[in-house]
Write a structure and sequence with these properties.
Strand order of the largest sheet: 5-6-4-3-7-8
Oligomer: single chain
Mean pLDDT: 87
CATH class: Alpha Beta
Bound molecules: farnesyl diphosphate
Number of domains: 1
Distance between the termini: 65 Å
Length: 282
């Protein structure tokens, strides 16, 4: 029997065919979640720009969940749940377009300052969504990397994140960076500590060495950073790695950031001229 709260009931999607053999899980429990679409990672959906104009790494500040919920008279957590569903869609869309790296900012070191209920709700949401995320990742060759601190998180959340990263570590078609309990400055401080602890001589320290000690070691810098929710700042996200990223700000609230909005961002990115400090190419 269904036991949905009012707002879950209102958000429950009607059944929708996602792929010939997949239908949304419309009445099998408390979930407002959708079924992950399986695909073989060959770009089977045409991206809105040619592949040589696509970013290799897209990173997203998923802002606006709270306002999305509030304007609908719903609790903030309803916005986060819808936001988590939008995040799942985002992974699917990037995979379909053949974008090999996606990083999502799901919980910042500053988010601890939110009311305890909201923090707990976000942790619970992560736990709930991880299992489905892992099975999707296994089927589709997605490696999940955690970016951020594990310490401070509850043992259950830590265990979930460890499970996700360990089980998927050999997948190689796409890398999903989950920035959870992440802060850009904190990451640089942590990296510096580890450089010192490893006894790296001062004269050997360069940008490559620092990059190797960041949570993102081995992941290329983001080409495109998207921030939804009508704010125009980076909020301690990928502080080191964002040095030459193209930034795309949009007023769209994160739960509404669908494929059409992804396409707009990719088209805008495709029109940017990246010079990395040098002059425009003739
Ligand atoms: C910012 O919106 C969003 C967050 C602090 C959390 C982002 C989390 C999700 C999208 C869902 C969880 C994701 C996973 C992978 C489980 P806000 O709350 O600051 O919105 P507001 O600015 O409108 O208040």
């Amino acid at each position: 029997m269904l036991n949905l709260t009012d707002w879950e009931e209102r958000l429950r999607p009607s059944p929708r065919v996602l792929a010939p053999d997949l239908v949304e899980d419309d009445n099998q429990g408390r979930t407002v979640d959708i079924v992950w679409i399986s695909f073989n990672m060959e770009p089977k959906v045409k991206a809105p720009v040619p592949s040589n104009h696509l970013p290799e790494h897209v990173a997203i500040i998923m802002d606006g969940n709270g306002r999305w919920a509030e304007t609908r008279g719903l609790p903030r957590l309803a916005g986060h749940k819808q936001g988590a569903t939008a995040a799942q869609h985002m992974v699917e869309v990037c995979a379909e377009y053949g974008i090999p790296y996606l990083t999502l900012y799901a919980f910042s070191t500053e988010n601890w300052n939110r009311p305890q209920d909201e923090v707990n709700g976000l942790f619970q949401l992560l736990e709930e969504r991880l299992d489905k995320g892992i099975s999707f990742a296994q089927k589709n060759g997605v490696r999940i990397r955690h970016l951020g601190r594990l310490d401070g998180l509850s043992p259950r959340v830590q265990a979930g994140i460890r499970r996700a990263t360990e089980l998927t570590q050999n997948n190689s078609k796409m890398t999903l960076g989950l920035a959870f309990n992440y802060g850009g400055r904190d990451e640089i401080v942590e990296a510096t500590r580890r450089v010192v602890l490893n006894g790296i001589p001062a004269q050997d320290i360069d940008e490559t060495v620092i990059s190797r000690y960041l949570y993102t070691a081995g992941i290329p810098d983001p080409d495109l950073i998207i921030r939804t929710g009508n704010e125009t700042r980076l909020s301690n996200f990928l502080t080191w790695q964002a040095a030459y990223a193209e930034i795309y700000f949009t007023p769209v609230m994160w739960p509404d950031f669908d494929r059409k909005e992804v396409d707009k961002a990719l088209i805008a990115y495709g029109q940017r001229q990246r010079r990395f400090g040098s002059l425009a190419q003739e």
